[in-house]
Each structure stands twice: as structure tokens, then as C-alpha cells.
Amino acid sequence: MSTNAKPNFKLRKMLFASVIALICVTLVYFVYQQNKAWAVPEEVKKLKNPLQPSESNLSAARELFKENCVECHGDAGKGDGPEAMMHDPPPADLTDAGHMNTLTDGHIFYQISEGRKPMPSFKKRLTQDQRWQLVLLVRSLSQPATPSDMKPSAPASSKPDANTKPVPSSKK
Ligand code: HEC
After folding, report:
1. Are 132 and 71 in a shared domain?
2. What's the 115 CA to ligand 1 centre distance in angstroms?
3. Which residues pair with 119 in a beta bridge?
4. Contact 122/113 with Cβ under 8 angstroms?
5. What is the dihedral of CA 144, 147, 151, 152, to 10 degrees?
6. Helix (H, G, I), strand (E, B) or coil at 102
7. Which residue has the least CA distance to atom 26 on ligand 1?
8. Low pLDDT (below 70) residues in the chain
9. Is 171 within a domain?
10. Domain membership of residue 5 as a residue range
11. pLDDT for position 143
12. pTM of this prediction?
């Protein structure tokens, strides 16, 4: 009997040690995740948006943004959505041109795809094309002065966004 007890005890000790180790690794991982900049792989940063900022892509993106992003990032992308207060860190201000201009298309695509707590990952919820459409929209949020074709959706103060109707995309 006593011969059995020893290895058993050893096994338990090992198990205990590995559980502690696992907890430590998890903790370190989370702390690390919180503090580091988005670790975007170099080859992803270099990706170019395969889509054009056409009106059909942008209006599709506006719908996607309304459904998936506005709750946190707000109508105009300022990071002031109705749920924004609940999150730490707070949702990013996507209209901050100084910051957003330092990001490549691939970088933004990666951020939308992977998310980062508390922002969810969208790679399973949205297709690649939808995520690239959102990259176009995110870009437009920080560049409101684009001359001819597009206007950013109405300023959040005047009217929420009753005026952004989906444009029927009959012609492709
Ligand atoms: C649950 C709230 C939430 C939702 C929903 C959400 N985000 Fe975010 N988003 C965040 C937070 C919080 C951050 C900042 C994360 C950080 O810095 O660690 C962020 C950061 C970003 C960034 C990075 C900006 C930067 O400063 O580098 C982009 C781009 C972005 N979000 C786009 C989107 C898009 C597009 C959607 C919709 C498809 C979306 N987000 C949905 C909360 C959210």
C-alpha cells in the first residue's frame, strides 16, 4: 500500500505545479496583451485594400458599421457609442487622423479581424470583403474632407443617422 502512496503524491505535486505554472502563464499573457501595441504581422501590414472606395462599398460598410461597431465606436466613430462607457480600455476614436494615418490598410484590416479585448474579433462574423469595406469606411471617418464623391454621415449631434439608407447595389 505505502508503495502506492508515494508515486501518487509525486503525481499530485506535479499536477499542482503545472496548474500553478499554467495560471502564471495565463496571467503574464493577459498583462502582456493589455500593454503591448497591436502585434500586427509585417506581411499583413503590407496588404492593400482590394476594394475601391465606391459608393456601393461605402454604403455597404456604413450598414455593417451600424450593426457591428456603432455600439462602441459611436455613429461618427469617435469612440462615444452607447456602450463605450462599459469598456476598458475605451473604444478607439477612429476619427483621430493623426493616429489613424499612421496605420496601413492591412493594419486596420487586422484590427477588425482579430479584435482586442474588449473589441470582439470579426473574422468569423464578417467575410473578408465586408472587413475590407469597413477598412474603407474607417479610413473615411478620419478624412472627412474627401472632395467629390462621399460625405461622412451626418454629424452625431444633429440627427443620429436616419439618412443613411442602404443603396440598392444593382450595378456592380
Ligand atoms: C465591444 C466594443 C467594440 C466593438 C463592437 C467594436 N470595437 Fe473597435 N475597438 C474597441 C476598443 C475597446 C478598441 C481599443 C482596443 C485597444 O486599444 O486595445 C477598439 C479599437 C479599434 C480599432 C483600432 C484603432 C486604433 O486606435 O488603432 C479599429 C480600427 C476598430 N476598433 C474598428 C472597429 C470596427 C470596424 C468595428 C465593427 C466591425 C469595431 N471596431 C467594433 C471596441 C469595440
Report:
1. yes
2. 7
3. 116
4. yes
5. -10
6. coil
7. 92
8. 1-5, 32-37, 144-172
9. no
10. 1-36
11. 84
12. 0.72
Three cell numbers at 27?
Answer: 496571467
* Residue ID of nearest Cα to ligand 1 atom 30: 112
Residue identified by cell 464578417 is 126
How confident is the model at residue 28, as a pLDDT? 85
**Buried b / exposed e along 123-134 (16+ C-beta atoms within 10 A):** eeebeeebbbbb
Name the domain count of the chain.
2
pLDDT at residue 119, as a whole number: 95
Maximal C-alpha separation, the chain: 86
pLDDT at 159: 46
63 inside domain? yes
In angstroms, the CA 61 to CA 133 distance is: 5
Instruction: Please list every protein residue whose CB sits less than 6 Å from any atom of ligand 1.
Output: 68-69, 71-73, 87, 89-92, 94, 99, 103, 108, 111-112, 116, 118-120, 122, 134, 138
